[in-house]
Specification:
alpha/beta; Oxidized Rhodanese, domain 1; five-stranded parallel beta sheet; 3 helices; 5 strands; about 25% helix; Rhodanese-related sulfurtransferase; Rhodanese-like_dom; transferase; GlpE_sulfurtransferase; transferase activity
Length: about 110
């Protein structure tokens, strides 16, 4: 199965993305407006997936491995999803905004 990919440059800075990283990674820095559902919790939290209407939902992790697995599984469930190529490392490398949860210090991809 081919995993659909979207380059980070094609994702708007404020786009809703699904972040499947672990809590500590999320706390360190994430895309503004992202929805956080760790990969292991995804099957039980499908009702929390954001509705993007116009475009496929971009799924992201640190570098693309976990999000690729999430995209493959979600696609089989009938969801319109795509993998954010290069993950949050590519997001940060492209100079896109990051926010950190209170008390986590400066935002950085972990």
């Amino acid at each position: 199965m081919s995993i659909p990919q979207v380059p980070v440059t094609d994702v708007h800075d404020q786009a809703v993305v699904l972040d499947v990283r672990e809590q500590d990674e999320w706390d360190a820095g994430h895309a503004p407006g992202a929805v956080h559902i760790p990969l292991a919790e995804l099957p039980s939290r499908l009702d929390e997936l954001p509705d993007t209407d116009a475009a496929a939902l971009a799924v992201v992790c640190r570098s693309g491995g976990r999000s690729s697995r999430a995209v493959a599984w979600l696609s089989q469930q009938g969801f319109d999803v795509t993998n954010l190529a290069g993950g949050m490392r590519a997001w940060q490398g492209a100079g896109k905004p990051l926010v950190a949860d209170a008390g986590a210090g400066s935002a950085t991809v972990k």
